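Final report, Chapter 2: Outcomes

The project's central promise was a pipeline that accepts a single protein chain and returns its three-dimensional structure in a standardized token representation, suitable for archiving and comparison. That pipeline is now operational. To close this chapter, we reproduce one record exactly as it appears in the project archive, with the input sequence first and the structure output second.
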Amino acid sequence: MRRILSSYDSALRASLLGGRSLLLAAAMLAGLAGAGWLRAGEAAPPTGLAALVATVPDADKDGKFTGPDLETIRKIYDEITKGGKQSVAALVGMLVEPGKGENYKTRYVLHGLVTYADRTENENIRPLVREGLVSTLGGNTPKAVQMYVLEELKHIGTKAEAEQISRCLADNDLCEFAAQSLVAIHDTADLLRNALPAAGGKNKVTIVQALGVLRDAKAAGDLKKALSDADGVVRLAAADALANIGEASAADAILAAGDGAKDFERIKLSEAALRLADRLLEADKKGDAERIFRKLWDTRTARDERQVRCAAVQGLVAARGDIADVLTAMKTNDPQIRAVAIRAAMTLLGEDGTAKLVDALGKAAPADRAALLGILGARRDPAALPAILGLLKDPDQQVRIAAMQAVSAIGGAKPAAEVLALLRAATGKELEAAAESLSAMRGSEINALVGAAAKQATDAAVRAALLGVLAARRAEDQADAASPALADKDKSVRLAALKALGVIGGDGQIPALVKLLKETTDNEEFSAVEGALSGVAARRGDACAKELSAALEGAPPAGAAAMIRTLGACGTRKALETVAAQTKNANAELKDVAVHVLAEWRDKAAVEPLLQLAQTTDNQAHRVLALRGVIRLLDRDMNESQKLTALEGLLKVAKTPEEKRMALGKLQDIQTVRSFELVTPCLSDDAVKEEAALALVKIADKVAKNNADAVRETLEKAAKATTNQNTRSKAEGILAQIKKQ
């Protein structure tokens, strides 16, 4: 909607809706502090209308509104109303169209007058204000002014003015404003209804929407006709209006329109049908509502209509109160629909729902039993445990799997033992379901049960599945149960053990994993060993670093490279020392691995060895990696002093302009005297003097005020050295400020 009101108008209306005193709200918004205006003992304002308006202070440039005090503004309103509706109309006549003059003061007075008249104690002047406003509609009054008047009539208009307001419905510019005013007045549906047949385009949409807001049942016939309008916007507006009205006879028309629609229009018409069904439920017309919900459930089956089906399920349960509707939804493969169905079932069943569901289990078909088990699992009620456990051996696999899922939500030693017994003989989907059930099951005692079962299992697939459960449960107390599987004759079990130990392994498993890193030749297993050891290293860094450092000597190249990479995962001081030493390895491949690991080190302790590497290496690629590693570590947990120390070291080892630029780029962001001093020598390097000058200017801008003597001479040199006019101007500006101090 186009707005012609200022921000204080909008804010004032918001305060009115909040129930504040109307005059107080006007005073607050307009900033009526009385500052610099009429005070006690001063002369009264002039009596002419234009003069009265002129006494209002101009709008403040800072956005605040400083106006007259309450008593003074009340006198202005009383003076205007003495002239009757003609004075109000004349006040409206002082408004001009946007862009053709200043409206602030006139709007201020006019809106304040409307607010003032709307106060309970001023109902005697309210009619003349309304009459004055409505008399300006039509004729030669500019459209923008009429829009403003219609906005004001929203607040004090009555049925007496509605007829004249309704004449604006035929105007393309005024229709929306008129419709909103009529809706605010309330008892005006007849006027909107009468205007509908002649309306077209956006006016028709506006009137249809207004009839829907007013919930005018008498307009249902015309609105149903509008469902077949050539204009799609009109069709959607009509459907929304009929839905809001709650007209049961419109259900078939809205549903039929949605059946024949596509894409966005189909979705919006389906939403309108849902809204209509909700209205019918509110009116206790459950049969009519159910029919709509059922049709939407049956026909809105596309993926992008999932939300419609979800709402339909909730509606059916609310309308019928029948668990059968929940079970139907539970049979779908859509997890979102199933989740909504479960929530609906919770609402339907109440506190005694478990007993109802258990009772239904004994009578239900297999597919329904699976759905009921899903709901029981969501309830997590231990009272259902006996019934669920009984179905773990159901003849139907779908039911057995559903029972495993349901029992996992309840947990406990007994359910775990039952599922473990099934897992030992399971295969395929059922084996996966049993493993998932044990992985999700609550209870600290379950880890030991699974660990013992993993040691005893004779089938390779079962052993691998149980090791996967230990990993999923992060059962660190069962690392010893997984360790023997490292030597299993079945590769899938060995890989499962490695994956598990990467999650649950501790100090006791490090020697075996390091040994495997030396001995394993299978590429897949080698990668799994390294991954497992890295996982342990992240948790047990000191122990792992000690073992790896000792094992490096004599390790084959591939194993040694993996050990160096794993030391990076340790991240300890011992690991750092070992990796730094390996950057001097005679083996070029191992040296390269060590440099890459050091350059990616996560701790600021790596700064010194990185700088040493940059200073001593003759490999340019390694040098760049080292310097970039230092720059990266500056953004880690380093304080300002530590950053400056690192950057000082970087500048000392920097050889190329690019390396110096890396340091200068960071130094200019640390604005201290020390950083200024570190940048200064670079000013004499022609390759980076421009970057140095810019950095000096940026730092000086912050430190010059309290360090004038330390800054002045160098900044003067920077101003002379730079060829960049912008940098020179900034330097000269700072120098000028220093001279004024």
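Archive annotation: Residues 158 and 415 are 71 Å apart (CA to CA).
This record, like all others produced under the grant, will remain available to the consortium after the project formally closes.
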